[in-house]
TrEMBL record:
<dbReference type="GO" id="GO:0008239">
    <property type="term" value="F:dipeptidyl-peptidase activity"/>
</dbReference>
<dbReference type="InterPro" id="IPR008979">
    <property type="entry name" value="Galactose-bd-like_sf"/>
</dbReference>
<dbReference type="InterPro" id="IPR000383">
    <property type="entry name" value="Xaa-Pro-like_dom"/>
</dbReference>
<dbReference type="InterPro" id="IPR050585">
    <property type="entry name" value="Xaa-Pro_dipeptidyl-ppase/CocE"/>
</dbReference>
<protein>
    <submittedName>
        <fullName>Peptidase S15 family</fullName>
    </submittedName>
</protein>
<keyword id="KW-0378">Hydrolase</keyword>
<dbReference type="InterPro" id="IPR013736">
    <property type="entry name" value="Xaa-Pro_dipept_C"/>
</dbReference>
<dbReference type="InterPro" id="IPR029058">
    <property type="entry name" value="AB_hydrolase_fold"/>
</dbReference>
<dbReference type="Pfam" id="PF02129">
    <property type="entry name" value="Peptidase_S15"/>
</dbReference>
<feature type="domain" description="Xaa-Pro dipeptidyl-peptidase C-terminal">
    <location>
        <begin position="288"/>
        <end position="541"/>
    </location>
</feature>
<dbReference type="Pfam" id="PF08530">
    <property type="entry name" value="PepX_C"/>
</dbReference>
<dbReference type="InterPro" id="IPR005674">
    <property type="entry name" value="CocE/Ser_esterase"/>
</dbReference>
Length: 663
């Protein structure tokens, strides 16, 4: 029994089945009030490929029972082809995936324990498909809470950024190569082995799929909700974090959707009731207010909340990891950031100044410039943040401001305008806005990258005419950051940003002829302008730790060849679920190699090990992938191996060659 009499007693079904119209059975984990049959409740749906049985258990335990006790049925569904669900997953956000979600919503809304209203909630993949399903507008779907997501699958996801190829395209594709290779829990499916072999035989190697779409074509338009915001009728609460890759969707959704609200904190890619860096917030209470209003018709005051609440981080010294970011909460009653006034700073031969001045600067960065960029998407809780930018700045054209006369709150997406020329037909640039401390330590505030072949749009790139000046305009990522009085801003421009983006086929030299940074500067927030309840959660997942987690990041230079390598080793540990006994473990390894003088030396290598154990059954997959290039072609290879009790029962190799298309 619950001690709090206002809470409802709940029950859990660990393998709630949903059979789709084509006969495919999806497996879900369902928490709901025991008396929901006589007092029906709304449903909160989280719909993912990340395995409810041994993948998202830690966050599910903290979150879904908490909502269920407060009068909701929480449904955590394994998507087709993943976890304990049947079928095969062919790609991310496919029409099949979204159609399946609509079927799930309509089936669940018709249950006698549901009041006919459904909300979708999710982070990352679940944040993406919540918005995408809302575009399809199934009648029961009334509200969405999307976290760490995007509105544009081409320009603001893990594949391409500013028309540049992100190395995360290989890194995350390799992660999914491993994730979707895992078997169902043998305790739940008598045909688990046949399901496993079907997955292994049919699972696509997604980096090959994504690399065949190097322009923003119809493939990327599908699922990009920015194509038609008006199609979204469900009410959207959007949440993000400044330590995450997905910083831009929240302000865009707030300004595009009626009644949408946005919250951005200092966090990495995690739910904000257990995210880092702190301060955390009472996310569950905020979500409950959203659900109660839109799914139960209770006036919780959410429509009177400020449209946009963002945490302004105090300028901090560069660190590879932060446990806390001091700062304050700012609230914008109407809109997000487009109304924030801008200050124009000009790139000149004398630095960064309020007035225009002459500029002629050349830059040709070594291929390993970008070593301090950090992870594209900080998620694994290792040393993933950007480091001290001084090393990368020595390989860049840099422009420093005078010391700030007062604290300066940068609040929005800075815009950079450059007039430049290149000595190569294919060139890319990275622009960083940095905070220079009085002793020279340099913190990256925000950044942007641009493939100059995409200067006129991502659909129809074209080569540059060497030596011919051109105008380039693009935005850096959104941020809320306080530059302290007496400290300086720096704009740094480089021609490479490895290992975050893949290099252009030739080393380029660019000449800067003029440049302006339009900086959104908000009135100074002297104290918190809004407040949140402290974080709370349901009891944590009960596990036995069999192997501790450990994360490693190191750089190596081969003194013979000159090749510089970033080596990443993330051992996520090995755990036994104390409730049902399943054992699961995972290890990820990545290596990114490049010679500072040779863009064609770039090479990415990934290797994941996935383990599950049940009684006398030990199952393991080894997922390998590699990518390299020449001037005209990308080359990929991948291998999947499956082991049952240490005997290899399946292996498959994939190789591919894909022409470079203005990248």
């Amino acid at each position: 029994m619950n001690n709090d009499t206002s809470l409802r007693d709940i029950e859990e079904d660990a393998d709630f089945g949903i059979t789709l119209s084509d006969g495919c059975r999806l497996s879900a984990r369902l928490w709901k009030p025991k008396d929901a049959g006589s007092d029906p409740v709304p449903v909160i749906l989280e719909y993912l490929p990340y395995r409810k049985r041994d993948g998202t258990c830690a966050r599910d335990a903290l979150t879904h029972p908490w909502f269920a006790e407060r009068g909701y049925a929480c449904l955590r569904v394994d998507m087709r082809g993943n976890g304990d669900s049947e079928g095969v997953m062919q790609d991310e956000y496919t029409p099949q995936e979204l159609a399946d979600a609509v079927e799930v919503i309509n089936q669940i809304a018709a249950q006698d324990w549901c009041n006919g209203r459904v909300g979708m909630m999710g982070i990352s993949w679940g944040g993406f498909n919540g918005l995408q399903v809302a575009v399809l507008d199934p009648a029961p779907l009334k509200a969405v809470i999307t976290l760490c997501s995007t509105v544009d699958r081409y320009a603001d996801d893990i594949h391409y950024k500013g028309g540049c190829l992100l190395n995360e395209n290989l890194g995350w594709g390799s992660t999914m190569w491993a994730y979707s290779s895992r078997a169902p829990d043998p305790a739940l499916r008598p045909d688990w082995r046949a399901m496993w072999l079907e997955r292994l035989e049919n699972e696509p190697f997604l980096p090959s799929v994504w690399l065949r779409h190097q322009r923003r074509d119809a493939y990327w338009e599908h699922g990009s909700v920015c194509e038609d915001y008006s199609a979204i009728k469900a009410k959207v609460l959007a949440i993000g974090g400044w330590g995450d890759a997905y910083k831009n969707a929240v302000p865009k959704l707030v300004e595009a959707l009626p009644d949408a609200k946005g919250i951005v904190g200092p966090w990495v890619h995690k739910y904000p009731h257990f995210a880092v860096p702190e301060p955390r917030i009472g996310f569950l209470q905020e979500a409950l207010r959203w659900w109660d209003h839109w799914l139960k018709d209770i006036d919780t005051g959410v429509t009177q909340d400020p449209d946009y609440r963002a945490y302004i981080m105090d300028g901090a010294r560069p660190q590879r990891w932060y446990t806390e970011r001091p700062g304050r909460w700012a609230a914008e009653e109407y809109g997000a950031t487009t109304h924030i006034p801008h200050r124009s700073l000009h790139l000149t031969n004398n630095g960064l100044s309020d007035g225009a001045g002459a500029l002629r600067a050349e830059v040709s960065s070594p291929q390993d410039c970008g070593a301090e960029s950090g992870e594209y998407c900080a998620i694994w809780l290792g040393p993933e943040m950007p480091g001290d930018q001084r090393r990368d700045d020595t390989h860049s054209a840099t422009f420093d401001s005078a010391p700030a006369e007062d604290d300066t709150d940068i609040f929005g997406a800075p815009r950079i305008t450059l007039r430049l020329s290149s000595d190569q037909p294919q060139t890319q640039i990275a622009v960083r806005l940095n905070h220079v401390h009085p002793d020279g330590a340099t913190t990256r505030i925000t950044y942007g990258v641009m493939n100059l072949s995409h200067r006129d749009g991502h659909a129809n790139p074209s080569h540059l005419t060497p030596g011919e000046p051109l105008r380039v305009v693009f935005h850096l990522d959104h941020i809320a950051y306080r530059l302290p009085k007496g400290h300086q801003l720096r704009v740094s421009v480089s021609t490479n940003y490895w290992p975050l983006i893949w290099p252009a086929p030739q080393a380029a030299r660019i000449t800067l002829h003029s440049g302006t940074m339009n900086l959104p500067v908000r009135r100074k927030a002297r104290r918190d302008e809004c407040r949140f309840e402290p974080p709370t959660a349901a009891p944590p997942w009960e596990v036995e730790t069999l192997r501790e987690a450990k994360s490693v990041r190191r750089r190596e230079t081969d003194m013979t060849t000159g090749v510089v390598s970033l080596i990443i080793e993330d051992d996520f540990g090995k755990l036994r679920d104390k409730q049902h006994g399943l054992i699961a473990g995972s290890v990820a390894r990545e290596r990114w190699d490049i010679h500072p003088n040779d863009p064609l030396s770039a090479r990415g290598t990934c290797h994941w090990t996935e383990e599950i154990e049940r009684d006398n059954i030990r199952l393991r997959t080894e997922a390998h992938s590699k990518m390299w290039c020449d001037a005209d072609t990308f080359f990929l290879s991948a291998r999947i191996e499956a082991y049952e009790n240490d005997e290899c029962i399946y292996a498959r190799d994939v190789s591919d060659q894909i022409p470079r298309d203005h990248i």
